Prior knowledge:
By secondary structure, this protein is α+β, with helices and mostly antiparallel strands. It has a single domain (10-136), classed as Nucleoside Triphosphate Pyrophosphohydrolase. It has helices spanning 51-63, 128-136; strands spanning 10-20, 23-29, 38-39, 42-44, 73-78, 88-98, 110-117. Strands 1, 2, 3, 4, 5, 6 and 7 form a 7-stranded mixed beta sheet that branches. A hairpin with an 8-residue loop joins strand 2 (23-29) and strand 3.
Amino acid sequence: MTVETRDETIRYTADVVLLAAGHVLLIKRRWDPHAGSWALPGGHVDAGEASLQAAVRELKEETGLPVAADALRQVGAFDAPGRDPRGRYVTVAYTATLPEPVAPTPLDDAADARWWPLTDLPPLAFDHADILTATTR
């Protein structure tokens, strides 16, 4: 039996599930894919950067909120084929909980940023609903 193999370009990202008082912080995506859709803050891991540092950086770049790396805990890796229409993406998701919501400032890739009640969420881009479910189980 011969097994055919082929190389696949895989992109590496980090996402953050920031929770506070029954709410989750979401950003409205400024760019495609899913422009105008709500999503978790996150983005590409830069060369030489660990996913945890990328999570801290992306959260601050998109929402203006600084969260220390030691406040984040890893939820898991999400790598289902087709989770991103641009190709194969693997994300490592992190979570932290604040005592209360802090006003975000939409920056960088975010057209908007706001806290949403966990009981009344908009449709989420990518597989972010699955990431949120894995986080809040």
